[in-house]
Batch of 3 targets.
Target 1
Amino acid sequence: AQSVSQHNHHVILSEAASLELGCNYSYGGTVNLFWYVQYPGQHLQLLLKYFSGDPLVKGIKGFEAEFIKSKFSFNLRKPSVQWSDTAEYFCASANSGYALNFGKGTSLLVTP
Amino acid sequence: GAVVSQHPSWVICKSGTSVKIECRSLDFQATTMFWYRQFPKQSLMLMATSNEGSKATYEQGVEKDKFLINHASLTLSTLTVTSAHPEDSSFYICSASYSAEAFFGQGTRLTVV
């Protein structure tokens, strides 16, 4: 069965630091990949997604992710984080439809 | 973007009672909705796929008689936790897809006492 793993469970950064959150997926066939963010008390919100094409995907709020097929990875990056980026981040995959397999999530705390 | 609304946001119930959670797509029609469950400090786990006008598809290990799903219209799916027990306490989230993107409800925190 397809699965997604996130390496960092808790990350603490200072404002303006660079961010990279790891995500690896297990399925070797066609896979759609996503990063979601959940701000405290809010809905899950899509940051970006990769279906095919350019492996470097730009998302909202300055986030990007790179799909590296040889490494089965889809890491999330942001060059300079802000306090408002404090949230829970989930990597997810789907091989058909929109039933998603989620990673365990990474809790990001950005300190002023 | 499309909006998915869940109700209630939180509920406390007594052990042995049943609880119904609603998931509505407010500005689009959804033939398929998904129900997830999230335990503390763990990931969201897909419970079932809700299909409008037909039976839901349950993931392995999810009791269909305990978690009743009804998708009677293109904008509403309901999850009923029957004879709830403390171990059913969890965070339940629904989603619906629109224009190649999944949209999520705000979730329902269920506490069974």
Target 2
Amino acid sequence: DAKTTQPNSMESNEEEPVHLPCNHSTISGTDYIHWYRQLPSQGPEYVIHGLTSNVNNRMASLAIAEDRKSSTLILHRATLRDAAVYYCILSYSGAGSYQLTFGKGTKLSVIP
Amino acid sequence: DARVTQTPRHKVTEMGQEVTMRCQPILGHNTVFWYRQTMMQGLELLAYFRNRAPLDDSGMPKDRFSAEMPDATLATLKIQPSEPRDSAVYFCASRISGANVLTFGAGSRLTVL
């Protein structure tokens, strides 16, 4: 499985933008880039995903490097509720297989 | 919002006892996953099913764990006999085949004494 590398932890001030980086230098052409987050005592929650182009939804934006070897999850205005562990995951979806393998993620702390 | 429902939310049992965890996937979702989360190992994929058929259970200790889908609305994960090292939070997740979004349940926290 292609691997991702994320910082162990990051801090942000409330109401400031947050850029969470992810490196995936061994990504293959069919791998999607997914982001999930896990709030304390809850199950992981889908945030966003993309293949090649930048993506926006109501929760966040995903910026994908042109060579696809890295990506950045952007929270436009951090709130206290955004404090969570954020996972960057590559998935392969082909030959009937679909799996998400979670790494350690980035623990985001939001400072009031 | 549609939810994945897991029961029980908490379970404390003694070593050697049988434990069964249940999951009701979102209606219409035909792919179901079981994950286990511990502080040491993080989130690990144990098994997954599509259209009730097991596709991959290579992450599951075969001697004591078993996973089934008796019908499309119920997935079960059974541990027999349970051991203290099985203490973890077990998550179920579901998706529609072809979709890129996995929806997780709230988890079942298992403590084996």
Target 3
Amino acid sequence: TQLLEQSPQFLSIQEGENLTVYCNSSSVFSSLQWYRQEPGEGPVLLVTVVTGGEVKKLKRLTFQFGDARKDSSLHITAAQTGDTGLYLCAGVSGNTPLVFGKGTRLSVIA
Amino acid sequence: EPEVTQTPSHQVTQMGQEVILRCVPISNHLYFYWYRQILGQKVEFLVSFYNNEISEKSEIFDDQFSVERPDGSNFTLKIRSTKLEDSAMYFCASSPGTGYGYTFGSGTRLTVV
């Protein structure tokens, strides 16, 4: 069973601060995806990373896939209250379905 | 932007009753999925469906569960005899192919009483 460990589980920061959340596994993934989930809603895809060492930017969000394709990080610059939510990483290996981590619940305080 | 539509948004049912959860995936997507999320827990895979058949299923997807794509647009999840522990948010998702991101619906909140 492929497990994805996300840390921290909870994070509360002031608006304007930077933060990084992590997604780690002992398994190799062919791709890792990051989603954001609002209460009562389905996960919404933010990004997919497929190449070891790949870095993708989405406005103030920077996603990195580890060289060994076992881990990933999400860095948010100058967090805003609108960034509040549950951030989920999920991995795919070959043709297996997406497996999710438990998520990092981010709270950005004004 | 294309979206995955799920109905109903909420369903309350008595233990032992059958429920059918409905989904309309994105029209040009080829892979369809059901996931569930028990309150406060992680999103768990139930089943994947490709080329009109189940391609993979988890341990959760036992004989009480079934999926169908009856008419080329709808994708349904049936729970034959619901149990209290089936209470969860059920999410349908679709993707255009392997390695692509999934598009999730807004979910059906199933409450078994």
